[in-house]
Amino acid sequence: MQRLFEIRSTARRPEKRRLLPIVWLVLTAGLAISAMAHKARQQFYIKPDQTADLHEPKLVTAKQDCANWGLAAGLETMLAQQKVALDQNFWVMHLNYGELCADLPSIEHLTKVVNQEFVLDDGRHVRLELRFTPVASAIVDDVLAPLKRDQASLMLWRGHPYFLVGATYDERIGRDGTRFFDIKELRLADTFAKQPAVTFQKNRETVGELDGILNVSVTER
Question: Domains along the chain?
Answer without folding.
Answer: 45-220 (3.90.70)
